[in-house]
Amino acid sequence: MPPRNLIRVRDLPRKPVSHRNGYRFSFIFLASMITLVFSLPVSLHSSPNRGEIILATTTSTQDSGLLDVLIPLFERKTGYFVKTIAVGSGQALALGRRGEADVLLVHAPEDERAFVAAGFGIHRRPVMYNDFIIVGPPSDPAGIHGVRSAVDAFRKIACARAPFLSRGDNSGTHVKERAVWSLAGIKVEGEQWYQETGLGMGETLTVASEKKAYTLTDRGSYLALKRRLNLIILFEGDRALKNVYHVIEVNPERWPHVKAKGARAFAEFIVSQEAQHIIKNFGVERFGTPLFFPLAK
User: Fold this and answer.
1) Cα torsion 231, 236, 241, 242: sign
2) Helix crossing, 89-97 with 109-117: angle to 10°?
3) Element holding 207 (H helix, E strand)
4) pTM over the 0.85 mark
């Protein structure tokens, strides 16, 4: 027997219908179905689907959770879908040089200026900032707590031969760390107490916690992961450790295939008043302080 909710054609009341009327009914039915199908995308989406754009950014923006708030809002407002590649700033800029990303959100100012000057990027705009801090085990074996500068802290770590973990990935954090070692006049290559992870910020913090080692980190990543780390802030407040993020559109004249309109839409969104307000308040409820501070004019 057929299922109860299945109505068989032979069970329906029949009326004599001419072939002409039948053809007319079929035509009207087919036209109605075509109209319905073509109208579905319009009714299902508040914004038209504009395709995918590739954002190459730093692990700190990903690990902190900031992008988990900003990107869905951008996608809803514009109809673009964002594919995020979270790597070090050096790797993000390399993707831009090869035309493998549409827009960058990075924090390596000197490398960014060189990137734009070489014609790979356009419209470099400040977005936000936080700062770098030095974290380490609560026992502080090198005794860096209370020193006056990041250079002094690095010198004491080297003198004590205390374990230090570097990202070693040419990220903005790694670039800043190398600059501090250089100012301190210390060559770390080949030293057993100095190790490179080749990992992102969150993973490097996890390894440093396990090995009871010092490391340089952006404040946002540390605060976001603090609850599961056995690391404390041992040095902060050096003006030389300010950490500024910029958004850069990959130059479509160099790489015609990049999604220039989508890149521009994302760049304008992240420096907009709405996004800057989100950045200003992100982290306050959970940590009592923002993880980033807005910088767009």
Assistant:
1) positive
2) 10
3) helix 201-211
4) no
From CA 270, how far away is CA 268, in angstroms rounded? 6
8 Å CB contact between 86 and 57: yes
Q: In the chain, what are the domains?
A: 51-129+244-294 (3.40.190.10), 131-241 (3.40.190.10)
C-alpha count within 13 angstroms, C-beta hemisphere, residue 295: 16
Residue 202 tokens read as 């969150």
Backbone angles phi, psi at 126, to 5 degrees: -70, 140
What is the mean pLDDT for each group of 10 consecutive residues in the chain (297 residues)?
35 39 41 41 49 93 91 96 93 95 95 96 96 97 96 97 94 93 94 94 95 95 92 95 96 95 97 96 90 91
What's the rounded Cα separation, in Å, for the pair 263 and 102? 6
Q: Which of 250, 206, 256, 262 shows the shortest CA–CA distance to 231? A: 206
